[in-house]
Each structure stands twice: as C-alpha cells, then as structure tokens.
Amino acid sequence: MSARRSGDTGAPSLRGKVAVVTGGARGLGAEAARQLAGRGATVAVLGLEPDQLAAVAAGCGPDAAWWPVDVTDEAALTAVAAAVVERFGRVDVLVVNAGIAAGGPLVLADPASFDRVVEVNLLGSVRTLRAFLAALIASRGYALQIASLAALTPMPGMAAYCASKSGVEAFAHSVAAELEHHGVGLGVAYLSWVDTDMVRGADRVARLGEQRAKLPFPFGRTYPAGPSVARLVDGIERRSRHVYAQPWIRAILVGRGVVPFAVRRVAARRAALTERAIRDAADPQATLPVGPGGAADRAAAAPPQP
Q1: Catalytic site residue 161?
Q2: Can you list the domains of the chain with their CATH numbers?
Q3: Which one is catalytic: 142, 161, 190, 244?
Q4: Which of 280, 274, 287, 165 is nearest to 214 (CA)?
Q5: Closest alpha carbon to 96 in 198, 225, 187
Q6: Measured distance CA(52)–CA(120) in Å, rounded
Q7: Fewer CB atoms inside 10 Å of the end CB: C or N, the chain?
Q8: Which residues contact 110 (CB under 8 A, 6 or more apart)?
C-alpha cells in the first residue's frame, strides 16, 4: 500500500493517527478509508453492509477494523464509539460521510424516503459527531463533515438532499466555533458529482440523469473519486475549515446569494418535464433512495418482520 509522505521526515503523514470513516462500505467513504490508510492512519470503517465493510477494511491494512451501524441509531453509535476507543485507545480523525439521496419532485416524492434522507444525512451527522466527541476532545482531534455543492446550489428534484446538506454545513459551522477552545478542528467538505454508486443510481432515475447531463460545465461533469478524495485527505492533514474536492466550488461561495434565483429561472421548465416523466413512468422505485447504499439503508430502516 503506497503512503504519501510529508515534509522531509520520510514518515507517512498520518502515522499513529486513528481515523473513523462512516459510510465506509462503498463510494467516497471506502476511498477515504483507503487513502487515509495509505497515509499511515489506522482506520475504523463504519457502515451498513458487513461484507463490503470487511472488504474495505481488509484493503486498509492488518490493523484496520469495521463495525456495522446505522448512523441514525444514537445508542448503537455510542456503543460503537466506545468499542473503537477500547480497541485503538483514541480517535484522532472522524470523517462524517454516511449519506443517501432520493430524487423526484416533492409533489410525487415518497414521504418516508424524503424524510429518511434528511434523517440520515443531517441527524446522522449530528449523532455521529456527538458519539465520538469525547474521544476527539481527548485527542484534540479533527472531524470533517461531508457536505456538498448541494449545500450551495439548489437542485430541483433533490430538495431533501439539498436541505440535508445545507443543514450539515450550518451545523458544522456552528459547532466548529464551540469546539475551538477544546482544541478540536471541524471542517466542511464540498463536492460536486463524483463517480460513486449513489451518483450512478441517481442518473438512472427518470429524467434526472438527463437533466444533470444538460447542466453547463463544470456543473454537469462527473469527477473521478480518487483525486476528489485525495483533496479531502489533504484537508484532513491540514485540519482545514473548508475543503473543496473540486477547486472551482470555492468560487460558488462568492455568488451563493444569487445562485437560488438563477437556478429558479433556468431550471423551472426542466423541473416540470422531470415531474411529468416520473409521473408517466409510474415507477414506485423512482423516488426511493438510490443505488446500493440506498437499498442497504432501506433494509436497515425497514421494520422487522413478525
């Protein structure tokens, strides 16, 4: 496993650090776990899919470990946090990445799925940080909350996702100030569309993929996961307050006050066409959480069968 080296010490930049990654079974979380391990960290991978988690951990070195947990289950998260500290003695880095997405206009959206996106992405982030907070304070560590370009730019057909990621951003900015005197760093990561199962699943929803393909460059481009995550890990090393997986996202912050008005003018007709396509398709799966990760979350959230 290759290790990026820092300075002139010849040592991997995160050697001796323990990093926890949620949503680590696939996609961004799995790639983050691998890259953190490559820079010397001992990694704990959390998620919903045991087989996937085991495979990711196996690729992160002999000391890596994994735990299955639903980030909306605060009691389970607290127990896992205790187990991680018991095994490794500390937590230095927390990557709050677990998330799901569901598409479709509000008028047609499955209510339970819409609410679940907000619960997983926003409340799951809150509960994750809360569960590991004592360990981060003890180590004077660093947490990275994975937000999104969706926190800055509204996307018709993805209201739940945009609202949840805006909430993640606001939550992180508020708590960051609270944690400074504890020596804990808290950053927010912004990403555009990255080549993951979630994005590929969203592209298969009626007209959403077509609508995204028509977005002007660079908004419609799908970016490879490796370089995108490498920028996140660079930010972790620097304990950055803001991390941009695609550098051009930084410019959106300057004009974020006018972005919602511009999107509304440009996207209203496309939103109407998307609604019509989903309605005509009469597909009960169209507004459920997308991709294999979404399917795993639906299974985890489903009530037990008698």
Answers
A1: yes
A2: 18-298 (3.40.50.720)
A3: 161
A4: 274
A5: 187
A6: 19
A7: C
A8: 102, 104, 287, 288
CB 151, CB 168: distance < 8 Å: yes
Give the pLDDT of residue 3. Answer: 42
Q: Whole-prediction pTM value?
A: 0.83
Confidence of residue 285 (pLDDT cuts 50, 70, 90): low
pLDDT of residue 135: 98
**Cα–Cα distance between 72 and 302 in angstroms, integer?**
13
